[in-house]
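Batch manifest, entry 17 of 40.
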Amino acid sequence: MRGILKPLQQSVEFKSLAQGINKKLRQQMIFGLSGSQRSFLLACLATEVAPRPLLVITPGERETILLADELAGLLPGVIVRQFPVWQLLPNYVLAHSKEIVAQRLQVLESLAKGEHALVIAPVEALLRRLAPLGEFLAPVQRLAIGERVDLEQLLHSLMVLGFERVNLVEERGQFTIRGGILDIFPMTAHRPYRIEFFDDEVDSIRRFNAMTQRSEDKVEELVVFPARELVITSELVWQSGRQELEREYNAQKQKLGHVGDTGAGGLVGEALTGMGSYFNGIEQYLPYFYGETITLLDYLPDDTMIFVDDPSRVKEVVHSIHRERTETNNELLTNGRLLPSQFFSYADWDHLQKALSTRPAIFSSLLPQQFKQISAQNIISFSIKPLPSFLGIIKMLAGEIKQ
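Output type: structure tokens
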């Protein structure tokens, strides 16, 4: 399949782009590509920068899904992951899709493991703040056959990782312990795992079917990553977060003279009461636990190549989201339904632009235009003509391919 990429890889334009990558140029600009032409270029880029990761930033989810589908076909064997948008509305507890959370966590795991991954993300997904990388990785557990484990400490670590203790493991993010048998379903796994202990030694690790509960194939080791994006590793962090939240809540309550909407005020009160363990929607209170603005871009290795599709639209989308969120948050704040620090659950354009300036980046636009925020050291214009539709006539297609 990759042979189809050779004509583009051998073109003068792509060779110029590849030379810029090898020379470690900070910013390059390309014009003239759209649709599947862009997918072909990205497939060539992923091959060129391997084994480094490649992050593709798109204006929206539609473009992300289309690119992911096309690149998966063009690059068999290469890990193509999407980092989707996860909406969190202040003071509303929404039923969230575990599939979306799992997709996002899979990207964070992949980057933490140093895999050669091709990650595609709509710019809105990059704006959500995350826990610092060190905090995310600190409680990660590795279990291997023959190793000795402090079971009580392991169970505590699983709670820190955000797993839910249940009687029977049926869904992702759950675990249970029965005698010397631990069942756990990691968020990014397709099957849950059953770990059997002989005293304090790991005797066996097997995958099992969540429907039938029957054990299946054996594995030698299991690495357990967090089951949620917000990981809080110490009681001290819990206490400081709760104190800051309570201080702001009381100050805002006194300033307004009322809590505002009863239901919304109740949710903040519930958050204060439960602030010592995880609960649905806790991610919206991340700024109370970690002051530093961290996004997916901060999880990337320094040599990660970044590809920005249609930078003018990307910037417009960021500013549009920021305006809408500011209007909504101001209204909620006035009505006593939002606390000031919740404004900072998302990064802004300045943070995104600064993060982009620290890594090698390629910006792609269909039409030549000037971008104030881009200081391109290499500008390339691709001259590619679209193929005719061939009207379903295979002989015409075969003739074009032969040429």
